[in-house]
Amino acid sequence: MKHWIEAARLRTLPLSVSGIIVGSIYALSNPTETINTPTEVFSWKIFGFALLTTLGLQVLSNFANDYGDGVKGTDNADRVGPQRAIQSGVITPQAMKKAIIITSLLTLLSAIILIYFAFGKDNFGYSILFLLLGIAAIFAAIKYTVGNSAYGYRGFGDVFVFIFFGLVSTLGVNFLYAKEVDPLLILPAISIGLLSVGVLNLNNMRDQESDKKAGKNTIVVQIGAANAKVYHYTLIVTAMLLVVIFAILSDYNFDQYLFILAYIPLTKHLITVYKNHDPKQLDPELKKLALSTFLLSILLTVCMISLISDIIVNLFLGGR
Fold this sequence. Notes:
EC number: 2.5.1.74
Pfam family, one: UbiA
Catalytic activity: an all-trans-polyprenyl diphosphate + 1,4-dihydroxy-2-naphthoate + H(+) = a 2-demethylmenaquinol + CO2 + diphosphate
GO biological process, one term: menaquinone biosynthetic process
Main location: membrane
Structural class: mainly alpha
Distance between the termini: 35 Å
Helix content: over 70%
CATH architecture: Orthogonal Bundle
Mean pLDDT: 88
Low-confidence stretches: 34-39
Radius of gyration: 20 Å
Shape: globular
CATH topology: Farnesyl Diphosphate Synthase
Largest sheet: none
Number of helices: 16
Strand content: under 5%
CATH class: Mainly Alpha
């Protein structure tokens, strides 16, 4: 059990649910024209199964990454980060393959239940669309490193992380509540997507040399260490700016800029990356950036709600 928990990489889980939290609380704090109160738009069932589905996708991605890099030999003695399960031999490739299949089925089941709670027997078109999105997300989680056509080995990992853990996660879960897309929410969705890509880029910066030897052509391998740093700064700074623009366009009051507190660890992270000359020292920054993104999502959702106590009371006393 200890080895399976390690293979699930728990430190990546808070990052994966950041978009779910922002998209859900945005729906709670911004009822649509046809829905008058927060309790009419927000559903604990949707929120719970959205979290469960996203966590399933993240664990599936971690298992598949361990399996794909393990059987290809990418995870070897040259790798800078901690040893993976297959690399160290504590879990066999066959056992990991079974775990991938089981996790895929459980995640798909969770997605189907989520879709049912969101759309019921109505909106059949939306149900089919989100079912296809769920299948695509499962496929993307597996194909990052698994198979001869693994897109992570061709530098497309950043694109898929941005789409599924940024746009789809934030905008998708919000649509499950509101049944419409709010253009303003695109800004924090992009921000969370960029920060998620930042975590992947940091991982690839750490593993640049071993990835290069193994033929894993990540963006970092393709553009080099120096340009990878510039790319990293661009991702993080752009994400921070977009959230500020979102707050301005949302006409936030002064006390609703509490989310800026999350910029302190993000700024310290950028300084650390700027000064870094040893890829091994970047490993602790993965956890710091992931948790900073999670902190930003929590603080931002608090700022979205102007009457927090009233809404919480409504949810627990009259919510579904």
